[in-house]
Amino acid sequence: MGKILHDLGIDTVKLTAQIIIFFIVYLVLKRFAFGPVTEMLEERRRRIAEGEENLKQIKDNLSTSEAQAAAAMQKANADADRMVKEARDAAAAAGESERQKAVSEAADIIKKAREASELERSRIMAELKRDFGRLVVDATARVSGKDLDDNDRSRLNSEALAQIANN
Amino acid sequence: MTRSFVAILTLLPAVSASAAGGGAAVPLDAKPLFGDQSLLSFLTNSIFVALLVTGLIVWFVRGAMKNPQLKPGRKQNVVEYIIEFLYNQVEKILGPKVGKQAFPLLATLFIFITVANWCGLLPGVGTIGFNEHQEGWSTSHVETPILRPATADMNLTVGMALASFVVWFYITIKEVGFWGFLVHIFGPKGGLKGGMGIALIPIFFIVGLIEVVSIGVRPVTLSLRLYGNVFAGENLLHSMGSLGSVLGMKGVINFLSVILFQLPFYFLEILVGVLQGMVFAMLNAVFIKLSTTHEEGHDESHAH
Lengths: 167, 304
Hints:
The complex is a heterodimer. Chain A is mainly α. Chain A has helices at 2-7, 12-144, 150-166. The mean pLDDT of chain A is 87. By secondary structure, chain B is mostly helical. Chain B has one domain (14-303). In chain B, 72% of the residues lie in helices and 3% in strands. Chain B has a three-stranded antiparallel sheet, with no helix packed on it. The longest helix of chain B has 46 residues, at 74-119. The radius of gyration of chain B is 24 Å and the shape is globular.
């Protein structure tokens, strides 16, 4: 055993020196490489996760905004449709009202015209009756050759008017 | 230019061995640089290379991680890539909790062994040194090379294996406790309970003893495997380099044969270098995994 160790050059001092060298490498790598790199990787992983989380949130916000915009657009369209319909209805109602008003005014005008016409007719009839009465009286006076008094005149007018009324 | 190229080639182990005109003669052990009786007798050619490798790793890592940025530079990117890759491998085997504890040791083993193995392939390692018979420097008849691959020294491989053993034992006791460790080794396996479990206690005790021997042998197997591979690689390169001379080739043909015979094995050694680093680290990961894994039966008892 001792010969094998000797042949292979195994020696306590050299072995200790090699272990110390390995330990130095271990400490250096742990202090300057493994620690900072694992921290860096962890930090990077955290940032990537954070970025992905933000991205997800942005996507969520975007979809929410899109949904809100779509809803607002839909509501605006509905409102616009309603307002147009209301405007149309109002316009139709106003038109109908105006038409009714015009019809009513026209009826009034026609009525007034009829009344005026009736009055005119009555006036003309009255004039005609008066002229006719006067003509009858004048004609009777000329034909009979006598002066007619007021009673005769009144009787002749009444009879003439009665005949006209009967006709 | 051609002279410079030839000068560099003579530093390769094969060319050097070929120039020596004989077979490979890589000594089994590392040699002291300042003699056996010197105060610096512990400073062997292998320890010297281990120090150079340490310096190289420190220089590179400090340069890369001096001012770490979230958006990494080229060097930082390399370091991060290696460490992240290793961390993921360790985490896959050991899980996040134990993996975090064992990662610094396992990653150090892999990085140090791989860099040391590759540094052993550099021109000059094993080919520049002293020749006691010629009393001076030599690049052709080297008896004590100044530079010897760090992992071609049993002191380093045994040192790393012992360090791994200590860390393995610490993590195991921390995870399962001393009693849990004993139960894990000597206790009934496969969730056996009741009469059958009691009846098989002697068998499991003997199995436990075999397990203890197997655990005790681990540092030996780990260190010998690594040493054997690297030492064999050194010998292989020297042998391939001297093959032309052995076959009787001379002059330019011999020179070309050295390059052609040796070149494929350089690529092989590059692969072996990283594979041995990976094997050493992963075997330690598996050892830790085996001793910290809770059996279902044990889990239930812990849960209660």
